[in-house]
Design a protein that fits this description.
It is built from 12 helices and 12 strands. The chain is α/β, with parallel strands linked by helices. Among the domains are: 49 residues, no CATH class; 146 residues, no CATH class. Strands 3, 6, 7, 8, 9, 10, 11 and 12 form an 8-stranded mixed sheet that branches. A two-stranded antiparallel ribbon has the order 1-2. A two-stranded antiparallel sheet has the order 4-5. Strand 4 and strand 5 form a beta hairpin. Helix 1 crosses helix 2. The chain is globular.
Length: 338
């Protein structure tokens, strides 16, 4: 049964009866409290409420980012034109589009979606996996959950490639693409390689406390191949190995929940920003993920889908949020952004 204590009006709301359960136990390290101890507990709560005050400021009247509706409309139009146009067979062109638009890239929250933000607040483009041999996926998110780290390795092919031959057998192109995933699995099953991966893509302060569970995504071909021959759908579903997710290019659509995430690259020991999306909104929820990423200011200033005023604002405010994230108190309102 909750303990009811009446405290004085020391906080910015009216005097009221406060129901205290876990907070009392946490602050006092005692499981119960008598009414004789009310003044002591009110003092402890006062200290807790002080710690819970916001320690940051959101700039009012900041230049606005590109609206999600505008971004979604423009990028979907460009994406559909690319998939149906003369450059659909050019993997490099497709890669550059996705690098510029990380919200299209699946796996930011693992499969199924965990809801936790990815490490470094972005997706890696062509991240080198260097150990006993070197492999280079097209993209990689490092998704997180309560007690798990999910490196999500993504192989991008082209929409023109076919999954099956006319006789219903896997094509050589598909077999070659799947072999890339098998090579990644073999690489990561090596204990020495996994240790190198943790060292390279840390931060070790995060990784050392979590179990690592790798997931693999193959993006290949178009949905229309299975609309024409529906019997192939069952065969396709059986091609996926454990922790593999095979999808067509038609599944790639911008995800509103990833609108603030960057495209990144690994260079030596550094994580460097390649793209700061025009939809980004800075704030306390994003700051802890980004403060280890270098080159964000430069990436923001070259993002021509933002207005000049917005580019300069984002570049300037990165420093402010970096300083805030270094503090010991990180109480914040998740809806605060600028």
């Amino acid at each position: 049964m909750p303990i009811r204590i009446r405290c004085r009006d020391k906080w910015p709301y009216k005097p009221q009866m406060i129901e205290i359960t876990l907070i009392i136990a946490y602050v006092s390290r005692k499981p119960t409290v008598s009414y004789m101890d009310q003044s002591n507990y009110c003092s402890a709560i006062d200290q807790l409420m002080t710690l819970m005050q916001k320690t940051y400021e959101i700039e009012k009247n900041a230049p606005p980012p590109m609206s999600w509706d505008e971004y979604e409309t423009k990028t979907l139009t460009a994406w559909d034109e690319l998939l149906s146009g003369p450059e659909a067979g050019d993997e490099g062109v497709i890669h550059r589009f996705l690098e510029q638009n990380p919200s299209f890239i699946p796996g930011a929250f693992s499969f199924p979606a965990s809801g936790h933000s990815p490490v470094f607040g972005g997706v890696f483009s062509k991240p080198p996996l260097t150990g006993i041999g070197t492999l280079v996926p097209d993209f990689m998110w490092i998704a997180t959950a309560t007690d798990l780290i999910y490196p999500v390795l993504i192989e991008i092919e082209t929409p023109e490639k076919k999954w099956f031959t006319k006789k219903g057998q896997p094509t050589a192109e598909w077999t070659q693409a799947r072999s890339q995933i098998i090579a990644w699995k073999q690489w990561l099953n090596n204990a020495a390689n996994k240790a190198v991966f943790i060292e390279q893509y840390g931060p070790s302060s995060v990784f050392r406390h979590f179990e690592i569970k790798t997931q693999f995504v193959l993006v290949f071909g178009r949905r229309k191949e299975f609309d024409i021959n529906t019997n192939l759908r069952g065969a396709r579903s059986h091609q996926q190995g454990h922790d593999e997710f095979h999808i067509t290019f038609d599944r790639l659509r911008p995800d509103y929940n990833t609108r603030n995430y960057l495209s990144l690259k690994k260079s030596g020991d550094d994580v460097i920003a390649l793209v700061v999306p025009p939809t980004i909104r800075l704030g306390p929820g994003l700051a802890p993920d980004l403060h280890l990423v270098k080159g964000r200011k430069e990436a923001a200033l070259r993002e021509d889908r933002m207005s000049k005023e917005r580019r300069e604002f984002v570049a300037r405010r990165f420093s402010y949020w970096d300083e805030w994230s270094k503090g010991s108190t990180h109480f914040y309102d998740a809806s605060d952004s600028e």
